[in-house]
């Protein structure tokens, strides 16, 4: 079984991809702090559990597989800045295989139990 809660910030992106690939919105939602912010492809900031969850439910609708590779993690005490390259393999409306990719920027925070959670998730942080 893959790890579901990262214990070092460098594991965040692989844990997110595993949660995404499971198709389970609860696994994705459990990686985010309650008041976390995520940024949409249009550049809108969504704040709070309900909005972040809805945005990720829409992402799960792609019926695809994701790979996310950590490019760096810069840590200061219990906060870290991350960058990752992500890749989604899916099919277009004609049923032809396509790949979508991007580079994300995230800020994560460590909790008292040693696990890490997203506080800011910008999936298109290197492309806007």
UniProtKB/TrEMBL annotation:
It comes from the Bacteria. Residues 14-116 form the DUF4440 domain. The keyword Isomerase applies. GO terms for molecular function: isomerase activity. Keywords: Isomerase. Transmembrane segments: none annotated. This is Ketosteroid isomerase-like enzyme. It comes from Chryseobacterium populi.
């Amino acid at each position: 079984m893959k790890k579901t809660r990262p214990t070092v910030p460098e594991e965040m992106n692989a844990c997110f991809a595993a949660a995404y690939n499971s198709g389970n919105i609860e696994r994705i939602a459990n990686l985010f702090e309650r008041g976390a912010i995520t940024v949409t492809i249009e550049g809108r900031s969504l704040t709070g559990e309900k909005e972040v969850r809805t945005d990720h439910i829409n992402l799960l609708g792609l019926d695809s597989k994701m790979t996310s590779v950590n490019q760096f993690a810069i840590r200061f005490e219990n906060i870290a800045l991350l960058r990752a390259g992500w890749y989604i393999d899916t099919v277009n409306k004609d049923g032809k295989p396509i790949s979508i990719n991007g580079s994300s920027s995230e800020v994560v925070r460590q909790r008292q139990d040693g696990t890490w959670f997203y506080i800011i998730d910008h999936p298109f942080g290197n492309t806007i």
